[in-house]
Amino acid sequence: MASTTSTSINPDPAADAPAFVPLEANPELMTSLLRKLGLSSALQVHDVYSISEPELLAFVPRPALALLLVFPVSAAYESSRLAEDAGVDEYRGKGPDEPVIWWKQTIRNACGLMGLLHAVANGPARGFIEQDTPLSTLLSQSEPLAPAERAALLEKTPALAAAHHEAASQGQTAAPDARDDVDLHYVCFVKTDDGTLWELDGRRRGPIARGALAADEDVLSEKALLWGPLKFLERGGGDMRFSCVALASSLD
Fold this sequence. Notes:
Blueprint: H1 27-37, E1 43-48, H2 54-57, E2 66-72, H3 75-85, H4 111-121, H5 134-142, H6 147-155, H7 158-168, E3 184-191, E4 196-200, E5 208-212, H8 222-227, H9 229-234, E6 243-249
Antiparallel strand pairs: 1-6, 2-3, 2-6, 3-4, 4-5
Helix pairs in contact: 1-7
């Protein structure tokens, strides 16, 4: 996905923006990437084999702390996004009182990394980031910054680029070129301590609160799936290029 400018109509990074090799939705590679950046080994990324069959959802340890959805950026999705974002001001939040920490995506094909950052930076997962690591440094530096400065910080953090490149180059399928236009995108869903389900996507105008979950509901609960990935599937138009991974307790 590319554009000459980043606007509400086309929010993708400019054609001459920094570019990453797209990240495969591979739980092992994602887990390795996050741990290399400073996530505790107590958490890992898990495949979500189905969001409609309870016996398959049972393979994911609960509670699931974050859900990443890979979806095709279809005309129907873009129409829905434009309608929802119409009249919404650009997010300007910063500082320790933010309900979530959100990064605007200004690096082409970095949506997988953006999703992982949103997953570990918010909600209970944040407590599993080890001190004096690239992740802890990134969070402490990002928190006081406005969104534009946060995005620039990501572009200037070599540890992120290096870890991402290593993970993206080890996928099970041939990796596209960093400059390729890719029509698949990642979005992250997290539940914060106050029970709010957030949709976090660097292509949007800011973080989106989707509703309040009960204490015993996580991002894989029926309500969260209805407000989150199932809405995307409804707009899929028969395109089945959807997949999900979840951040939860490690099995090893």
